[in-house]
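Posting for a labmate who doesn't have an account.
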Amino acid sequence: MAKRYTKKESQLIEKAIAFLVVEYTKSGFNEKPVIFHSLRVACRLVEAGSPAATVAAAVLHDLLEDSHVTAKQMQKSFGKKITDLVSVVSFKPQIQNKTKQYQEMFKRTQAGGPEALIIKCADILDNSDYYILGNNQAAEQLLMDKLKYFLQIAELQLRKTSLFQDLKKRYQMLLAQMEQLN
């Protein structure tokens, strides 16, 4: 059920949306529709009843990896808690190996606690709408391995949440599709 926010909480979320749009428009470099994706992730968390700070972090979750925004800039506008949440759900581009990159990020996300995990869960769930099966077997396997790894590390803390259950169902559906293709 969607959470109702106070005026102050709503203003925080709106501030995050405005920051995302302005900063990504200035310096974003991902060809994917990052702003729309970020809003969908945040909406999933509103529907799940997440606190306003978690929703704001979800709005901002791709800025550190897909734009020239720095953690210092973000912290100046949103404080340490929100910036820390965004930081732990962001991959480190200096890690070149994609498997090691997502494993390292998911371990940091897990250490960040349930709020970080639920942001990443909603992020992966939204991204999984775009998993195209049957085009590139290696990329397909990497995505499925990433999804499976996240489910394993997040299960203890998130297993009772509807977002986790939705992601688990999506994984099983994608597995079934892969089996039909192979």
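Reply:
Got it, the structure tokens are right above this. The domain at 7-181 is CATH 1.10.3210.10 (Hypothetical protein af1432).
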